[in-house]
Amino acid sequence: MSEAWAELEPFEVSASLAQKNRLVSLNGGAAAGPFDMLRTRILQQAASNGWKRIALVSPHSACGKTTTAANLIFSFGRQSDLRTLFLDLDLRRQGLAKVLGLQCDGNMGLVLKGQKSFAEHGRRYGENVAVGLNSGVVENASEILQSSQTRVVLDELQEDYEPGIMILDMPPLIGTDDNFGFLGNVDCALLLAEAERSTVEQVDIAERQLSELTNVMGIVLNKSHYTDGAYGYGYGYA
């Protein structure tokens, strides 16, 4: 483990919290199957296209995006030959910190503004996954995400921590302009929709918007009762 990674404060998640917050990927096995499969497909697409920065985006709130991101932390944690950096850039809510049951001092807004180092703020799961969290709502989220300083900080994180993959949990597309000025900083976006709630029109509009801003890696359908396998999600190429 490099010195930069070793300095990050480690964290663990209890079995009781994992059960409460649907973190089914924590201990691997059959329950983790859908997230391990999603991890593998993300890595295949990333390797084929040379992508390193991947945004997770949903058309609207409550699509299961943050729960998916949290489960992917544990799936990527089992990919021991790969370093992965997860950043919660949905700055208008606590998000990943709440799902993971973690208290944090500060937020990613401070890191992006250069007011706090990631070494002080970031947390580490195992030896190969690092996360950046939010303690609450960040003011001026849109302006922070769209700033040139944010691009500088992302480049510095890439250089200092050398992640093979950087996954960015972004706000929903509907309701804010947070994504529109930011997605030029990523290589691609993965769109997560909710079965039986996200309409075809919403998904189509979201996909078109994303395609104007970055590459669309694919679409994940959460909470689906009709899949091509045994799991409650579906995946398709955009």
From TrEMBL:
Q: Specify one Pfam family.
A: CbiA
Q: Which residues form the CobQ/CobB/MinD/ParA nucleotide binding domain?
A: 54-224
Q: Which UniProt keywords apply?
A: ATP-binding, Nucleotide-binding
- InterPro entries referenced in this protein's UniProt entry, alphabetically: Bact_polysacc_biosynth/exp, CobQ/CobB/MinD/ParA_Nub-bd_dom, P-loop_NTPase, Wzc-like_C
Top-rank taxon: Bacteria
Q: What is this protein called?
A: Chromosome partitioning protein
Which species is this record about? Aliiroseovarius zhejiangensis
